[in-house]
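Trying the structure run again after the queue cleared.
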Amino acid sequence: MHLRVRPRSSNRCSLARWALAAGLFLSTAAGCAAYKATQQPDKKNVGVLAPGTQRSRVLAELGAPLWSEERDGERVDLFAFKQGYRKSTKAARALVHGAGDVLTGGLWEVVGIPAESLADGSDVKVEVTYDENRRVKTVDCIEGENVITPRGLFGRKAKPPVKTAG
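Done. Tokens:
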């Protein structure tokens, strides 16, 4: 009497199916980190907060204030915004994510998506007081002082730009 032993199904077959399913999933997810990089907030020109800037320029750059009132004959605005990134920075980040996706077969998304979620800009809140001519008089930074007055090398405050006559 001969017993026939049926070979067990190969683990290679189930491994190949799993790899194919994972590859299909990752290929549909590929590009998400690159897309997120391009959707980060834009960089605002905080130079408009310099004394003497007209209120209309501040509004054009930072948008409508969260809150505004007259205080002792002076207009006071409260702004809250995300300080984002230059377009070139966002494009470079998207390129790095795309290259990472290609080189790792989509596995880069495991790192790229959380990285882009964490690097979504800096929160800034400022209270701007204008003089009687609607020009910036004072700026009180409530949050994000490092964005308004960035630090130079070795943690020192950067020197303000020198104004030249002429």
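Confidence is low (pLDDT under 50) at residues 161-166. Worth checking whether this holds up in the mutant runs.
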